[in-house]
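Tutorial sheet, problem 5. The two components below are modelled jointly, 1015 residues in total.
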Amino acid sequence: MSSKQDSKVFLIGEDNIKKANSRQIPILLAIFFFLLAIGLINLYSASVGNHYFWAQLRNLTITLTAFVIFGWLIPIKRINAYAYGIVGSVCFLLTVVLLLGRIAGGAQRWISLGPIGFQPSEFAKLATAIVVARFFATHKSDTPYRIRDLLPLIAFVGTIFTLIFLQPDFGTAGVCLLIAVSQVAFVRIDIRSIAVILVSSPIIAALGWHLLLRPYQKLRILNLLNPNLDPQNTGWNSLQSLVAVGSGSLMGKGYMQGTQAHLKFLPERHTDFVFSVFAEEHGFWGAFVVFGLFVSLVLIALDIAKNSKDTFSSMLAIGIAFFIFWEFAINIAMVLGVFPVVGLPLPFFSYGSSLLLTVCVGLGLLVSINRNTYGLSKP
Amino acid sequence: MKRIFNQESVLVENRYIWAGLLVFLVSAALLLRLWYLQVYKGDHYQKISERNRVRRIEIPAPRGVFYDRHGEVVLGNRPFFDLVYIPQYVQDVDTTFKILSRLLHVPIRNFKKRLRANSGRPKFLPISLKRNLSEHEVATIEANKVFLPGIEIRVAPRRDYKKDSSSHLVGYLREIDPKTLKKKNEESLSNPYLPGDLIGRQGLESRWERHLRGKRGYRLIQVDAYGRQTIDDDRQWSFPKVAAIPGSDLSLTIDGELQNFVKRTFSGKYGAIVVLDPRTGQILAQVSEPGFDPEMMQTGLSQEDWRRLTSNQFKPFLDKTTGGEFPPGSIYKPIVALAALEEKIINQSTTYRCPGSFVLGDSIFHCHDRGGHGRVNLRKAIVSSCDIFFYHVGVDLGVDRIAKYARAFGLGERLGTNLNMERPGLIPTSAWKQLVHRFPWTAGDTPSISIGQGYNLMTPMQMASLYASLANKGKVWRPYLVKSVTNHIGETVLEQRPKLLKSVDIISPENFKIMNDMLLGVVEDAEGTGKKSAVEGTTVAGKTGSAQVVGLKKNRNQDDVSRKWKEHAIFTAFSPVENAEIAIAVVSQNDVIGGGGRSAAPVAGKIIQKYWDLKKEREQKLSKLNGQKHEQQTRF
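Model answer (structure tokens):
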């Protein structure tokens, strides 16, 4: 018995392991470039009369370089090795942002380095995925995890969540939490722990509502329930987005002809509500294609996770898949008026260098994972 | 806890299926929402997005034009230049106002006041800074346009009032008040009024408002979220434009030149003049004085102007041609005379002696000539307007028989000119006095009645109509002003023909002839009271009247009473005696010069003269034109 077990353990990492082929990479690349192209073309329409399109094009040269570096030049085991270092630096940056915000006397999400400004909270999404992957890669267990086992992880994620939440950026903090939860959902958790979490979370949510949420955040959530409440102020964004999307109908108004966007009825056209512009100009069928591309991308990422040979790679791929999925789902839900306006941008579509960089690095990591044939256990 | 460090994966394989399912379900739910918004509610949101971006700009319709009987324009429109301020294009309010203030010599605070009054409106809507710019001002602004972004000169059609336009005839325009607006819009839904629209408030403008106003057009513009008009550089933003339909034009019976002449001749006097065509009842001219300036009403009246107009004791807003009731005085005598002739109370040779006064019971009635006329027959009584003769005749006739003949001419009731406020006048009877004053008719009331004083009241229109009827031997035509209404494409919408109201058949043609002869004598005889109305080259038959406002003591005369108590100078006439073409009534209220013969007759004479002059002039022009035509034809 024991020899059999030993031999099985021994065999792992030897020729018994299937060679993972990199068949996902071309499809991933195709979808990636399709989305980038559609996003850029749409951003051109959404930013008529200002510089956002050209700025995004400039950002793209940098971020595509990052995509290549993380996809082909840096092996995934380096990421594994420096995981805590990466998370530590992101946390440091988040702290710096927080302190700068305190000094500036207001909400601060940016760090400016000369002409470049970036948002560390975007990087934190990827950092969360990395830290969770690293945790499970080092803390393996064949019995279901209990809360007590997960405490270090909760501490890591909790730190990131709190640092972003304090900025305050409820949306990004929530996405980080969602990424972590999605990843954790792939391992076995003790049923009692789940019960404890299910019972305590409403209590924590209620406490959070009263103690943590700021009035403007509460208002946004209330607006979801009734967007006609205050059309000129907080609900205006939601309402105008609905009008933009709805008036697109089946076939759309045509490229560059969206009246809601071009006549500036639509707020945040180039960031949070960039998809409204797309849905207005290209209608239901255009939006359908974009949905298809995003869902395919997420499924490909999950497929890469499934085919990877070690826990860290799988967990990281799952994290990246759900990072893209939650960003997509929450942004679209926000645009379609079924979710509060939490200020989450849409990957590939929204203007912003930090998000673009994060997405490119994330997809680069997916390529890297997929390219790694033997997993991390192979020296 | 048992740890297996060498196990490669802690991940549960089947969770991938659950994850895929989650991704798929969430996406499907969002897609369903998208379908609901874009396809199921697509039309609804399309409407909202149109409403979001499209604004309607009204295009005012020019009002219909008034033409006189010869096709000359009586009142038309002209473009008015308004200086407007379009907030969305103005860059620096203070600099703009500073420049404007220097160019137009208007203090900056006036502009600021205008701006404040119009705050809160959409930014693409122009705010009027100064109305009715002169040509010079327009040129100045245009020359400096480079420095004035957002300042424009807008053209709007308005009424082009001439200096001596007849205010009561055409009426005036004012901004519609909320109550009228509501009422009018309930009547006609298809062509509603908007607040700020001008509406006819008197005269023809009011009476024919429905035809004159036309239908406003509109164009649609596109605005952005800030209410600024987006510039129309692309075909894709061009919207359909609905042009305004101009109002229908009115062809009047008025003779424009004569009307202006009447207005000029009568200036300085208060009262009314009506000139009629006795053959049809067409009104050739009608003037009521004092008037008001319709231009002032259009551009806006100041408080002080309004106070001045409303406190004037001669009531500038009252159209005295139909709305002013005056005692007719001696011009009433022909009716009494005709009645007496028909009732065989007198004949042409009946005489009475005029000692200057007439005693009935314990009352004494005076003749206007206090020295007396001596023996007077009917002709002399008419020609020198002897009151004593008519006291005798009147007393013999009795009030009710006089009234019967007066009523036969349509007096005491409205003629139906349908312009402004028309009064019926008053022809008293014994029954009327019993009813209204609750006191029986006394013998002492009759002498006053028989010389057109006392309870008698007539409007100038009725006076003119009465003399037109005398001229055409008993036909009472309805006086009218509008011959036809022609819409913007040249179709005749409405046509008015002469309407015979009454035929006076209780008076024989012979007696009419006798009476017209005597009226001719008033003008042509040496002792005639209306000599001053004589016109060379034609015959004029008329009658003077001097209606006393109050009875005067024996030792006082008209010269030393205040204007309020002075008598009305009246003269009514027609010309020529046979087949008269023109009938006229001149009523000079509280005239400062004197009675009908001295003050009103010369005015009437000048007008009749002008009528014939104009006629001759036009005939000459016409024959010249015909000659030319003939020449052209022969040349072919």
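Marking note: Chain A touches chain B through 58 residues (CB under 8 Å). Full credit if you identified this.
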